[in-house]
Design brief:
Elements: E1 2-6, H1 11-22, E2 26-31, E3 42-45, H2 51-59, E4 65-68, H3 78-98, E5 103-109, H4 133-152, E6 155-161, E7 163-164, H5 173-176, E8 177-178, H6 180-192, E9 198-203, H7 215-219, H8 241-244
Parallel strand pairs: 1-2, 1-4, 2-3, 4-5, 5-6, 6-9, 7-8
The structure holds D-galactaro-1,5-lactone.
């Protein structure tokens, strides 16, 4: 498949572009930044909030699918978050329609349901329950994907990524970790699963202490292999672990998390 990867210069992007390449896909990179040193791919320097620039990138070569990883991975004010996650997604979807590209894999986030109290395993049927404007942006981007799937027949898989790290670093990560290899497995499955329509999965490894249900992902062909529990002995407990376990969004859901939109007292 020839796959356009947005955010290709980012931390997930670099792992995914290399991984998809190793699996035999032809990757076209797209990012605000030029290709990192040593990355030898067709590459577009484009801001995905600009629909004309996105369309030009599509014009440059035929594509089979898009992996949309671009987006600011932390809290912003609401307009910033909507631009970063929703406007970019809509620009890509419109270019996909114009250029007859039928599949998109989206890097959503666990923070779409981050304010869910930590009790039972969270399924993909849980109420959207964002913990931040970042999470609101992810929920709204998923809604745009769902609309384009229903209205235009685009296949869209939203991957609600947990904590993408080389290895788990905190007690929360024992539940939220997504290993590099499993991330590639997840994207490959979401790209190739037959006719998902609009699908949602949780992008975590096969963690013994997982907080999210992996079954919807398995139904879409995502078979994670790694388990954060194998690193448990290396993880030192911290005073904030208990607060981070109150909601599945961890620190983003905490009372002290930076909230730029709150009026001053
Ligand atoms: C995310 O979606 C964020 O982009 C990342 O910064 C982490 O906070 C991660 O989730 C997480 O929940 O660990």
């Amino acid at each position: 498949m020839r796959v356009l990867v947005t955010g290709a210069a980012g931390s997930i992007g670099q792992v995914v572009t290399a991984g998809l390449g190793a699996l035999g896909h032809e990757v076209v990179g797209l990012d605000l930044a030029p290709a990192p040193e040593g990355v030898d791919l067709a590459w577009h320097v484009v801001d995905c909030t600009d629909p004309d620039a996105v369309d030009e990138a599509f014009e440059a070569q035929p594509l089979d699918a898009v992996v949309h990883l671009a987006g600011y991975p932390d809290e912003l004010d609401l307009p910033g978050s909507l631009a970063s996650h929703v406007i970019t997604t809509a620009a890509l979807l419109d270019a996909m329609l114009a250029h007859r590209v039928g599949r998109i894999v989206y890097a959503s986030s666990n923070h779409a349901v981050g304010r869910t109290p930590r009790r039972d395993l969270v399924g993909t049927d849980a109420r959207p329950r964002p913990d931040t404007f970042y999470g609101v942006g992810k929920v709204a981007a998923e809604a745009v994907l769902s609309l384009y799937a229903d209205r235009y027949g685009i296949d869209a898989v939203a991957c609600r990524i947990g904590s993408f790290l080389p290895r788990p670093e905190t007690v929360r990560n024992l539940s939220t970790w997504l290993s590099h290899d499993d991330c590639v497995r997840m994207v490959e499955a979401a790209l190739t699963t037959p006719a998902p329509g609009f699908g949602v999965l949780y992008g975590i490894s096969a963690n013994t202490d997982a907080w999210w249900d992996l079954e919807p992902g398995r139904a879409l062909g995502y078979q994670p292999q790694d388990d954060a529990a194998s690193y448990a002995d290396d993880i030192a407990p911290r005073p904030e672990d208990e607060a981070e376990a109150a909601h599945v969004g961890g620190p983003f859901a905490g009372e002290t998390f930076y909230r730029p939109a709150l009026p001053r007292a």
